[in-house]
Amino acid sequence: MQAAFAAQVLRSPEGVAVRCAGRELSYRELDERANRLAYRLVGLGVGPEAPVAVLMERSVDLVVALLAVLKAGAFYLPLHSGYPLERMQWIVDETSAPVLLADTAMRGRGLPDAPVVVVVDEDETLASLPATDPGVECRPDRLAYVMYTSGSTGRPKGVAVTHRDVLELVVDGMFGEGAHERVLMVAPYAFDPSTYELWVPLL
């Protein structure tokens, strides 16, 4: 997925990649911000296929965070803000996620415990980190994300999705003719429709 994103950055570096609540980032800006956060994650010991929990509002920073996790070689573990704190904590504990990415809005509501919590929109160390790609190898068979089911039939279960799975969706012929270049993100990013809403137009 990183290679597909890098190719899109080269094609349209100044094109708008993401827009939310009056803020927008070009592909170049999104790439640079995600690279800085990826270096931060790598510096915290996040490595290939490590789970990184994400609990953030829908925003441009959320897209930065999800992309950064992949650039660090890890996979993202989206937490639904509507879940009880106990359920979010159970997911973080079951996966042994070493890092939780959050924002100030979610911190104000209460965060699950994790070994390291990075509040993305107020982390002053990011500005000093490199804007270039960290160069972490990524293979198509590696995990991109794990989403947990609601648990309505019992205990919640993690559904693992690889980079190849996402890319096969992105290149599906039904998304041709330019109709899916701009998509409104409606679904919570902890639900699987967000795979279409985020990655199809972005890539």
Give a quick precis of the structure:
The protein is of the alpha/beta class.
How large a portion of the residues is in β-strands, by DSSP E? 15-25%
CATH topology: Rossmann fold
How much is the radius of gyration in Å? 16 Å
The low-confidence parts are none
Biggest sheet architecture: 4 strands, parallel
The appropriate CATH architecture is: 3-Layer(aba) Sandwich
- What is the tally of helical segments? 7
**What is the number of beta strands?**
8
How far is it from the N-terminal to the C-terminal residue, by CA?
8 Å
How many separate domains make up the residues?
A: 1
SS-based class:
alpha/beta
- Give the CATH superfamily: ANL, N-terminal domain
- The level of helicity is 25-40%
Give the class-level CATH name: Alpha Beta
Description:
- Helix 2 (27-43) packs across helix 3 (60-71) and helix 6 packs across helix 7 (193-202).
- This protein starts with a helix and ends with a helix.
- It has one domain: ANL, N-terminal domain (Rossmann fold), CATH 3.40.50.
- The chain has helices spanning 2-11, 27-43, 60-71, 85-95, 104-107, 163-170, 193-202; strands at residues 16-20, 23-26, 51-55, 75-78, 99-102, 116-119, 143-148, 158-162.
- It has 203 residues and is of the alpha/beta class.
- The radius of gyration is 16 Å and the shape is globular.
- The model has no long low-confidence stretch (mean pLDDT 94).
- It has 7 helices and 8 strands.
